[in-house]
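Hi support team,

I submitted a single chain yesterday and got back a structure, but I'm not sure I'm reading the token output correctly. Could someone confirm the output below corresponds to the sequence I sent? I've pasted both exactly as they appear in my results page.

Thanks,
R.
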Amino acid sequence: MTVPDIVVRAARAWVGGAWHPAQVAVTDGRITALDGPAPDGVTVVELAPDEVLLPGLVDSHVHVNEPGRTAWEGFASATRAAAVGGVTTLVDMPLNSIPPTTTVRALDAKRAATARKLTVDVAFWGGAVPENLGSLRPLHDAGVRGFKAFLTPSGVDEFGHLDPAQLEAALAEVAVLGSVLVVHAEDPADLRGDGALGERYADFLASRPAVSERHAIGRVIDAMRRTGARAHVLHLSDAGSLDLVRSAKAEGLPLTVETCPHYLALRAEDVPAAATQFKCCPPIRDADNQDLLWEAVLDGTINAIVSDHSPSTEDLKNADFGLSWGGIAGLQLGLSVVWTEARRRGIALERLLPLFTTGPASVAGLDLGELTVGAPAHLVAFAPDEERVVDVHALEHRNPVSPYDGATLAGAVRTVWLHGSPIVQAGAVTAPGTGRVLLPEVARA
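Hi R., thanks for writing in. Yes, this is the structure output for that exact sequence:
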């Protein structure tokens, strides 16, 4: 009999979609048993009575920004933040790095930039831009998990957006590859204001109306019908689009959708003047809209909750909502942010867990997010009732800019194991540099 390297014992572990007592045996980085006695001499780690054992979280929407804009974030800081937040696998977006991940050469540059920096495992999205349409196969063959497209200007000049004809062409190409197009769905025809807007959040919100999401999502769905492609709607903020999504799913179209912690926990009514740390695109909307998003979380319409971690340097978050960078830094805090709001609403932790684990893993085509025999031993000891006040300067994110600064959040990640080895202990990173790139080696001419 193979002797495990370690056994993690928990009175409550999230196994098979329910809570069970478990003794998780780990051998060579994989789970080899979920119950049974621990052999003599094997190290046994017993979780505290207030802790539950979760599978490692998956975040399929992270802007790491390295190489090229590493002052905004980078693989070292991003993966440390992920680890402390219980995320053991993240999928890096193809922008805002320079170059963007729209060629194999750029993907190689990304991969080279990870060397000795990863605390968690990392996979990559490719980009679908006007310049590379018709030539997506090399990136697909090199191992990207799918292709991101914008339907409106992305905010960076080097990553162009697709017009309606180009969207359809991208979907047709993705369908042939058996891949997925992940879409920033806002219609530029509905957006108002380009330039300074001032310090009032209401003016920024009015410049990106909810109907822009509805029109763009409808266009994606129509093109899916014609091409047979699989598509995923990124960072849904408009609850008015949910009926479109429900109808497409009922029709059998392979459409999935995500939302983000900031849409589930922050409200437009509460955003202070000049507080551009709250600015993101599409924007945070009002409380009534938020209630409907929560209904979609609970009824299964929303498939994943991911961070859309899109940080920048402090100087780019100036006081003008029109001119400041549009992105929220929240990679380290996602589970706690959403759990805090869920608990306030009387929603059980188990209702959230698939949206942080198997949901985003499935979007990216990764077989992760479950405690099951044979799976990689990515484990998280989580204390749901522990509360703490967020100090933005104590976060692992590279830049101390976050809308959650000063917030009291419930839920603490205490210990994290990656491939069976502890990388976070007592809430702090203890083994940086041990993560892996989830990208197959491919022989290239």
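A quick pointer for reading it: Residues 441-445 have pLDDT under 50 and may be disordered. Let us know if anything else looks off.

Best,
Support desk
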